[in-house]
């Protein structure tokens, strides 16, 4: 048997070489996909984990409210718990302990100590040196720049800390000596600091005390413990060694996290008020797994499509071989070769061919895979690998080769394949099969459409199998049209008096046993067109997701609302407002809509930007024909607020409070002004001043925070107090408060608004006037004050340079419209922070920038802050800045500020499209295109070769009947072209339809959920045109070559020994 | 002086060898003969005697090592590729041992192939095909494809196709080789009849004695030489 196989192989070496090459190509594809799913996926997992930000993988233990004496033990317990969670990854553990606020000396001002072993990562030394914990004498401390300036501290200054505030506060005094100053390295890492890393808060409040606070004073561990301070916050962070992170160890860590809080609580017992262990590790791992699943599905689609195409090609090759061996087989059967022996011979030959092909495919796959990982995107993602042969490569390649080679066994035994015409019964069976295939395609499509919008593991299987089933089934059924089309063409062509065209059309139409060939050609074209379109659709979707996720081109997100200092820094970093990039302060925070507060992790969101520049600023796909400028047109706040130009740093401001009528004896009133200022970019902030007596005299206004330059005064809040000792029945005297702004000139026609804030206010008949004087402008607020009530309630009068809008126009997301049932023109009541606002819906959009898929409203920041300030909410509200079309220098400058996270749309798009776990998708789809093209060309070669084998004598006879060589070439070329061109075009059509119907459904977000916005098909028309044109030309070129060869080999001179 | 009719086929010194020394096969050696117009000549000899080689050389399917072949006054051996195609299209036709029909075409379409090669007008082609179908007794099988016909019917289609272009020389290589004796006899009788009715010169390679009996002349070929 072996002898027969070997000798026959030697005789038919060309044919078998072609078969081996075909199987090797297909098996290489299997090998490449196996490597992508195996080693590359592992590498991507590690690369992704190693790129994780600390906050994504760190495990943090929080211990709140620990006595100084228990601090060491509590810290050790916390260290032990978090270390155990991440034990296999040899975590680095750091801790930070923040002491309770103490009186600064005997003053009302507050300050606090802090120690930690990661200070150098969180703070930059600006002067002096780091504290030496071993130094003798008073503990050494590092002071925030801000606090040092405000407290007038210099190196060597001794600072005395007094009593701790709050109940059970420690009463000892602590002395530290200043050895240096620092600036927070970044706002990140200071989230749990009582002052948020600002170094100073003019009105810090712990609920019992409200006073200016400074700190933290950073000291060494020993100094901290020696101070005996109560620990308000102990934070222990374990950071895993990411190079040691394996999927299993991370899963174990996530499991451990479930019990870690309980464990810590049990160990610390009642020595702390609150204990908690927190980590985003679980969410990070879920995200990574979702991305892995999404990428795996894409690669599996490529693998399955490639295997299906390869199988079709193998079957075609098998029938070609069987056709060549028909006579030999008939002879052997007539000599008594049993069916079992036939199977044995075919199996033996198939296995030998499979092994030979695998020997070629294994190194080929290893090398091609390695080259693939050297593509720029994969290289940038850290996925570069050298060629290597592993069992993970050898086994699938061998299995794939054997599977494909077995097609030779099937075809070798199918005696009717090459000769018997399709019978009626078979035709009926085939029609039934067609219907079944359409049913399967329908079910697969329905499954894809019914995928959950959220992350779902079963979607993995659907994403993998459904598109392959749809594409294969539709192709198999669609190619049935081609013979009908050719038959119609043949009927038309028969009218010609010549031979070539009618005969070519007839031959093409009645081509026998062409089913597999048709499916192979059409499916290969469909797969390549589909793969190319899916790749661009996928890339477009990543861009769309990034645009909507970021909302603009660049965002600077702050850990806490920004004040004037941050605003000034951002303005300086972004350059000239009028000529630089469009910059907008942004309010981006949760809100409640009536009684709807959303669900955990999915709160309604308010996004307020400068909508005058919405067209340039906002990103994210809208409905076709709509622009953000048009959508936001109704949000425009109208004319800008002018206010009064303030002198630099607010110097020279004076305030005069006058009790116009005669005051009851013993009544002393005070007024605390808070100025509302507006910077050049329109950002408004409030700065309070020290309270002043209303004694009829002018007093300089002592602001608690320095003002910058270029500011305008747009509002003044007056907190009036006093009136104690006034009995009932006292009339309400008129008071006036005049704020003098030196140098300011009020614009003619500018009018200010005044209102008293709060319910049951003692203020009556408040009014405001602006008076120009030689020195500047006076803002004079007058009202009657019911002194009886004033003693109990105080009084607040707000004057503003603008009218507070009664309602804030907003654009709402479709999600919000669905949830709340809001429609355009309707009003929604909302609560932002503690302020109640009336929102009026002006438009509904698919989604609000930066809040993809969320219940969200988009408002104008100017209008919103007018409404908030008008309601008396003067606290900072700016959470971020958005920048359109930033230069790289702008991004760098904003990052250098270190005040928040800078995110660019481009970075997010690159992360989504080129992250280690994502970058394999486009590469795999490109591989599919290349593999499909190769298999198509191989398929065309096989189809034509099979035909040549079968019809060599026929062509020779036609030559003998007088057909010229040229006409013979024309005949075959037209015939093959008539067969191939419709298949290529049909395949392209199937691929395009599949791209339209299936493409968007196959795309998932990096979290494994449906992408937001929905994916839409992106057509690379030029590339698709080039691909289809190239495939057509390639097919025709092969046809021309094979035809020429065929005609040359079919010379009538070869009609010997009869006519065969 | 009476005019001597020019032979339809004039063969002079025809030599054809295959292979190279020392295994050279002399298929034909210095063969010369004439065939008169309208004559039906049987070429007989054992297998491998050179019958097919002789027919291939007569039809211009092969080229001799030496000698000339003239068919209807045209020196076949001097024609180029294009000339040979024209000769085969206009002057010579073939009847093949294995019928040589095109499976995709019906009987009528197969018969019409030589007419399409000549770009014969459609109505003319159709009437000619109908005539030939009548001639070979296959009018009722006009729309059947070769796979639906018996061996004898296929060969009758082959003969009709060979006659469709009104050739002057018909070459048939073992036309009954694939048929049983009875069918073979019927086919040869048909060939004899249509050759006479169409006035065609025919050369039939055969080793069938019945065929020999229907021929006007028998050329015996042995060891590369022709006798008769």
TrEMBL record, chain A:
MF-aspect GO terms: transmembrane transporter activity
UniProt cross-references to InterPro entries, sorted A to Z: ABC3_permease_C, Macrolide_Exporter_MacB
Keyword flag Ubl conjugation: no
Pfam families noted in UniProt: FtsX
Segments forming domain ABC3 transporter permease C-terminal: 928-1046
Membrane topology classification: Multi-pass membrane protein
Keywords: Cell membrane, Membrane, Transmembrane, Transmembrane helix
Locations listed in the record: Cell membrane
Major subcellular site: membrane
Transmembrane segments: 15-39, 297-322, 343-369, 389-415, 427-446, 466-493, 514-534, 924-944, 979-1003, 1023-1047
Annotated GO CC locations: plasma membrane
Superkingdom assignment: Bacteria
Keyword Membrane (UniProt): yes
Family the UniProt entry places it in: Belongs to the ABC-4 integral membrane protein family.
Protein name as it appears in the record: ABC-type antimicrobial peptide transport system, permease component
From TrEMBL, chain B:
Transport in keyword set: yes
A Pfam family it matches: ABC_tran
PROSITE patterns: ABC_TRANSPORTER_1, ABC_TRANSPORTER_2
Domain (ABC transporter) ranges: 9-228
Top-level lineage group: Bacteria
Stored Gene3D superfamilies: P-loop containing nucleotide triphosphate hydrolases
Keyword Nucleotide-binding on entry: yes
Keywords: ATP-binding, Nucleotide-binding, Transport
GO cellular component: membrane protein complex; plasma membrane
GO molecular function: ATP binding; ATP hydrolysis activity; transmembrane transporter activity
PANTHER family: ABC TRANSPORTER RELATED, IMPORT ATP-BINDING PROTEIN
Protein name: Putative ABC transport system ATP-binding protein
Species this chain originates from: Nocardioides szechwanensis
